[in-house]
Amino acid sequence: MNTLLWITYLITTLWSIVNIIFYGSRATKMISWSLVVIVIPFAGPLLYYMFGVNRRKFKLFKLAQTQKRKLYSETYKELKEGNKSVHKFDDYRKNKLASLIRKNSYFAPYDGNEISLLNDGETAFKAIFDAIDKAESFVHLQYFILEEGKLLDRFFELFEKKIKEGIEIRLLYDALGSNSLRGKVVKRFKEIGVKAYATMPFKFGNLLFTLNYRNHRKIVVVDGKIGFTGGFNVSDKYIRAISDLGLWQDLHLRLEGPIVNSLQRVFVKDFHFASGEELLLQDTYFPKIPANGNSIAQVISSGPDSKYPAIMQQYLAMINVAKECISIANPYFIPGAPVLEALRIAALSGVEVNLLIPKKSDSLIAKYSMFSSFEALLEAGVKIYLRPDFSHSKVIIIDGDLASVGSGNFDYRSFEHNFETNIIIYDTTIVKDINLLFRDHCTKEIQLEYVAYRNRSVFEKFMEGLSKFFGPLL
């Protein structure tokens, strides 16, 4: 029996390593997965097959639905009528970034938008509920996490009321992110007329092809005229402390103007992918939107079916065009060598680089993976601040006049495995407000000092070193 087990172990391990060699995309990730399959008998190869295989070459990315998503993106690169995109900025940095996003994500920047910042759960969900309550035609919602609680109950009450008024309600939720959602809760929504679908559902025959690819977006579109996106999920942890992390903080955007049409395009593709419904391709769901403000904004979306890792390219491009200052707030800062080196180069060349990271984390391995890069960044002159509460915000600010807010983290999962959406803001006034929110937290009391950090305990250094093996897998 022992001989049979050894033979099976050798065969599965060798098979996994051969696959890693043939299909691995990065050396660091290949080394990490090789370590996993060698040191964890049987379970290691299974984990690799479930989470490590590059499925861009396989089934998920050859599905007819996926091809339709790509075709839709390429066909509807601009709004079909009425609102004209911004083709050129006076600023070279903005031109470069906008051009990149046009080509890797098929979205143009649009003028005439009104953007409001929603900086806490109570404010964000009040704005969302108010918009839904005033809906006249349809409401489209998409969240990574739906959790039972007061917020979800409030959504149910509003949906029930609006459906009786003849309003169409469509709801998408990620099957894994919302795994705590019981079937009877979803059934309850469907019974009142909500068209609710899970994205990437766990079904026999496709589990191994979809488990590692999640829809991490948070989008609300009301009547095609008002939109919301950012970092908030539907969870009571944003309105009351229900864990050791306390009250979660985040940043969301309320949008009016032509940019909402771009946000609607993201939802429509995802809804079609989940439901097969093509009704939303009609112009009824893409109304002509007049200018509502003076802000220029641009949607960027990315996913495992994208031609390019658009979110990673966006962050790298923003870092590379910075002249004076880079400020990043993110709860999962595990960006990999290219982004880390870009930040070190920026700091060494005289650009002020600030990182605002939560001191506490909902993932111990993610925390140590983040902290493992801090010493090298501090040595290069990067300023790192450890926020005492848990902030879930995903923000990058460049030179005080360019910012991104959305769902994309600084990690491999957001870069390669998740469907994500960010908003690029080319408005100095709005960016100034975001920057003030950022700076309010960057106090001397929570700033890491290089010498002190270098002298941290041996245990912490060991845990950080160990986490480096797993960082590329997160």
Architecture blueprint of SSEs:
Layout: H1 2-23, H2 27-39, H3 43-52, H4 64-75, H5 92-105, E1 110-118, H6 121-133, E2 138-143, H7 150-164, E3 168-174, H8 183-191, E4 195-199, H9 207-210, E5 214-215, E6 219-222, E7 226-230, E8 252-256, H10 259-275, E9 295-302, H11 310-321, E10 325-329, E11 333-334, H12 337-348, E12 352-358, H13 364-371, H14 374-380, E13 383-387, E14 395-398, E15 402-406, E16 410-411, H15 412-417, E17 418-425, H16 428-441, H17 450-454, H18 458-467
Parallel strand pairs: 2-3, 3-4, 5-17, 10-12, 11-16, 12-13
Antiparallel strand pairs: 1-8, 1-9, 2-6, 6-7, 7-8, 9-17, 10-14, 14-15, 15-17
Helix pairs in contact: 1-2, 1-3, 2-3, 4-10, 5-11, 6-7, 11-12, 13-18
